[in-house]
Amino acid sequence: MKIDILSLFPDMFDGPLGDSILGKAKDKGLLDINITNFRDFSTNKHGNVDDYPFGGGAGMLLQAQPIFDALAHTQEEAAKECISKGRVILLDPAGKKFDQKEAEKLSKEDHLTFICGHYEGYDERIKTLVTDEYSLGDFVLTGGELPAMVMIDATARLLSDVLGNDESAPGDSFSSGLLEYPQYTRPADFRGMTVPDVLTSGNHQKIEEWREKEALRKTYLRRPDLIDYSQLTALQKKLLAEVKIEEE
After folding, report:
1. What pLDDT is attached to residue 224?
2. Which residue in 69, 157, 182, 209 is the catalytic one?
3. What is the phi/psi pair of residue 147, to 5°?
4. Is 187 a catalytic residue?
5. Which 8-state DSSP code applies to residue 215?
6. Where along this sequence does the record place binding of S-adenosyl-L-methionine (predicted)?
7. 191: left (phi > 0), else alpha (psi -120 to 50), else beta?
8. For the CA atoms of the chain, what is the radius of gyration?
């Protein structure tokens, strides 16, 4: 997957996108991440990329020209590699809320471009370039860099071979529609806190049933809004009924 990032602060991405799992994915050639400072495309002699809004108001707005030209440049470079324009993503508090399902959709793309804003907002005409607008939630950050990092991490880890175990991602919280069941590792007894007996029993059918039930329990207690009863299997409905009785 090719990822382009348009940002005024490219150094912010050095550590988060160069270390750990994403760094290894880049080394393997699974990810090609390029960061472009769109200030480099300013036609202003001082390198300004913002200006006052027409009609007055607080703060400054990002101008259209530097971002238009920066995006045209990155897309020309992608075309040289026979890579499609892909999806152009604007990080904006007014955008659609980003979640696991959206990450799964984006992970199927060959090329993603993230436009990271700053200041008070954007010239509205920038949005004519955009295919998707996303927000991480109902709060405002100082810029789009942190949301872009979060989205790239959530999306890239779903690519084949990035995690090293393709069975890891489907079992994550939200991927199955439920929160993930509790997990334990050695020792079996740590300071008097013991691992549930079923997990050391060797009975894989019982283990899977326990995991299913505990995933339902965690979701029921913490995020009941995620449970779509109509989508549950007969076994899940039975286990959920047991959970409700046990938690009364």
Report:
1. 96
2. 157
3. -60, -40
4. no
5. H
6. 117, 136-141
7. left
8. 23
Is 120 noted as a catalytic residue in this protein?
yes
- Judge contact between 5 and 116, C-beta under 8 A: yes
Looking at residue 190, what is its pLDDT? 97
Instruction: Say which residues have a Cβ less than 8 Å from residue 134's Cβ, sequence separation at least 6.
Output: 89, 90, 91, 92, 95, 96, 97, 98, 102, 147, 151
- The question of whether 208 is a catalytic residue gets the answer no
Which of 172, 180, 182, 209 is an active site residue?
Answer: 172
pLDDT single digits (tens) 118-166: 887 899 999 999 999 999 999 989 999 999 999 999 999 999 989 865 5
- Is 93 a catalytic site residue? yes
Task: Please tell me the number of Cα atoms within 13 Å of 242 on its side-chain side.
Answer: 13
Residues comprising the binding site? 117, 136-141
32, 69, 102, 120: the catalytic one is 120
Residue 245: HSE in the Cβ half-sphere, 13 Å Cα cutoff: 7
